[in-house]
Amino acid sequence: MPQRTTNLLTGPILIAATAFLSVDSLAAQDSWDFVIAPYLLAPSISGTSTLGRLGGDISVDPGDVFRNMEAGGMLRFEGRHHSGYGFALDYAFMNLGNGATSPIGDIRADYKQSIFEALATYRFSNDSDTFDAYAGLRHWDIDVNLNILTGPAAGNLQRGDNWTDPIVGLRWQRRLNPKWRVLMQGDLGGFGVGSDFTWNLMGGFAYDRWQNTSLFMTYRALGVDYKSGTPGTPSFFEYDTVTQGLLAGVGFRF
Q: Which of the chain's ends, N or C, has fewer CB atoms near its CB within 10 Å?
């Protein structure tokens, strides 16, 4: 498949998912502290993708994603009990559509992708560092509709798949001063249950500008290697990519 066509099919994959937020306790009198945070990710994507017998290399920059975006949204919600146990829910959705011309004809590609995470967490700390261990599920849902309008391969090709990966990870943060914190996070998953393997790495800073509001900016890289069906058959689906870029958002504590 020509590279430009593959870009249209895979441009909106974001990672989403797994955004990273501040959940500092404010010594609240209630048993629970919560954080809700909308965020944005400006990704670049590289790897390979195959739909049936059509496939090729992927090379997408943030401009490709935002030029072709039709709809999207990203939100994270975290809660933590004073005992240290808690949870995190994260949802990222994007709908991408655009037209293109390639050697196989005029193309219309519509792509819908969502990632949902549900995690159980536990916080522990020492004098200078805070750690959040977590484990849970990351669910992927991808739907691709490729309409080749002209040329010898004219016709409609629709493929989609969804899978759920178990993941385990750790988040670390250290306060540099009353306003600034440094953050790092990583997890592994898949293990052949959903994808063959998936990984996630993040690092950056949080700025506690107001009592109950924080700004954060991190750099994130998310990799996944997923295959279903038999290679060379119309039902084969492959998604083997690394998505990376800046992630920024705002967290509201209550």
A: C
